[in-house]
Inverse folding.
């Protein structure tokens, strides 16, 4: 009986904290985010109105999509490797990706930008550098029967600059470019 008396305050505290932190706090934060940031809170899904009046979801502008066709801009390799940049395993993966690019786009004389052969820290980065996008312009233009300038203009439309003009690096959103190439944006 004495042990139950000693355990009671801990159990009451556990119950109260579970209600406060696990339920009430979660509900309040979810409600605030739905009111102030509904698009972001729901995954920043790109939804496009179709000709028949229905809406179709194409993916999140915050998560990479897997494109491997010649007519599309291809993003960073997916998957988090958590390998040291100087490890044998990482070097092997990078070499495999370089070999893939050479077989996929054999006529491209340019050096392959590093972000096309190395995974991002999250493994789902939806952006590539403008240099990585430029590397792919010729292949996309040929595959789509477009001019290189038309492809570059679409890429430019979906390239974000530095935050406040000096923070971060310019980035190209792969999904948005591919949707624009398909004429959906």
């Amino acid at each position: 009986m004495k042990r139950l008396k000693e355990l009671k305050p801990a159990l009451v505290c556990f119950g109260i904290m579970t209600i406060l932190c696990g339920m009430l706090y979660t509900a309040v934060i979810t409600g605030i985010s739905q009111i102030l940031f509904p698009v972001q809170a729901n995954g920043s899904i790109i939804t496009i109105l179709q000709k028949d009046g229905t809406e179709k979801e194409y993916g999140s502008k915050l998560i990479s999509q897997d494109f491997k066709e010649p007519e599309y801009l291809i993003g960073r390799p997916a998957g988090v490797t958590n390998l040291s940049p100087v490890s044998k395993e990482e070097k092997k993966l990078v070499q495999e990706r370089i070999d893939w690019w050479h077989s996929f786009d054999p006529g491209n004389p340019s050096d392959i930008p590093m972000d096309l052969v190395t995974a991002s820290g999250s493994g789902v980065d939806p952006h590539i550098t403008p240099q990585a996008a430029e590397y792919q312009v010729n292949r996309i233009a040929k595959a789509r029967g477009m001019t290189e300038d038309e492809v570059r203009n679409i890429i430019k439309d979906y390239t974000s600059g530095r935050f406040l003009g000096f923070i971060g690096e310019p980035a190209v959103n792969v999904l948005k470019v591919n949707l624009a190439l398909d004429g959906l944006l």
Notes: The chain has a mean pLDDT of 89. The first strand starts at residue 45 and ends at 49. Strands lie at 45-49, 55-60, 127-128, 159-160, 171-173. The two ends are 70 Å apart (CA to CA).
